[in-house]
Amino acid sequence: MSVSFIDGNALGGPLGEIFAVDVTVATSRCASCGRTDPVAALHVYDKAPGLVARCPGCDAVVMRLVRTPTGAWLDLRGCVTLRIPLPL
Amino acid sequence: MARTAVPGRLSWRRATLAAIRDETATARTLAFDVPDWPSHMPGQHVDVRLTAEDGYSTQRSYSLASADGVELTVQQVIDGEVSPYLVSVLKVGEPIELRGPVGGWFVWRPTDTAPVLLVAGGSGIVPLMAMIRARRVVASRVPFRLIYSARTPGDVIYADELRRPAGGLDVHYVFTRETVRRHIGVADVNTHGWPASFEPDCFVCGPTGFVETVADILVALGHQPRRIKTERFG
Question: Per 3-state DSSP, what percentage of chain A is helix, strand, and coil (rounded to 5)?
């Protein structure tokens, strides 16, 4: 068994330096299978130059984040929507 | 609190080690002074960043152990890059960088009223202890059950504190390397957790394999997946 993923909770810090809201409590919809999950429950693979978040249902890549010394690359192709809880 | 206002983006803060407490032979609690630390919710974590003189830098996430203030309990990982430094090298008065508090999902709110099941594997106890402590601070009457899997009794973090009787908190241990090698199983969770019909909020924290096992058991016992919150540390 070589599962070495962690939870989307771990995206809180890296996304928190980009966004003013806590994106880990948002609900994301997978572009591959349509399943929805809290971002905090995505499967995150971090033994790489960046962070790769996969769908817990179908394993498709939902989100990729790479931090360089001068910027952040955020790839959201695998994510149809992000529903972010916001009070009026 | 943190949810009603947009808190703004996270940035690195300078933290100074204020006190060290031994928990077990390999785990220590580090208390940091962090100027202007906002309050946090139990279950949240911080990212810690260490930077070497040559500019090489690395970071890890650690759960907050305390209900108030910044206390991290760090289990030394033998080949680790960060934990040996935090556990054995960093001295009181020395600085590190950290950012947080992070994460609004794996948290228990004192306003929540559902019964709570906490399942810890090894140092996965840390964020769950923050929940137990917060429950005590606000004198909550929400019933808590803790199932704590550790190798041996000597590996139990916060052993003294957990031994003290606390109304409404039941603690059950699973020792995996004592007389026989064993893992947490369906019987442990079924007997010492809550029936699914009570609709408890379940928080599971530990190594990835442990969390997978426990989450699968909870689903098999009829718990709704949305009530099972997990934090794996790889």
Answer: 15, 40, 45
**pLDDT tens, position by position, B25-55:** 999 999 999 999 999 999 999 999 999 889 8
Q: What number is the ipTM of this complex?
A: 0.91
Closest residue, chain B, to A8 (C-alpha): B231
Give how many domains chain B has, as a whole number.
Answer: 2
Low-confidence residues in chain B, pLDDT < 70: 1-7, 234
B203 and B122 housed in the same domain = yes
The pTM score is: 0.94
Which among B62, B78, B57 is positioned nearest to B29, based on CA atoms? B62
Query: Nearest Cβ partner of B208 from A4, A16, A25?
Result: A4
Of B102, B129, B144, the one marking the end of a domain is B102
What domain range includes position A71?
Answer: 6-83
B7 assigned to some structural domain: no
Contact B106 A40 (CB under 8 A): yes
Distance from the Cα of residue B42 to its chain's centroid: 9
Smallest CA–CA distance, residue A77 to chain B, in Å, is 23
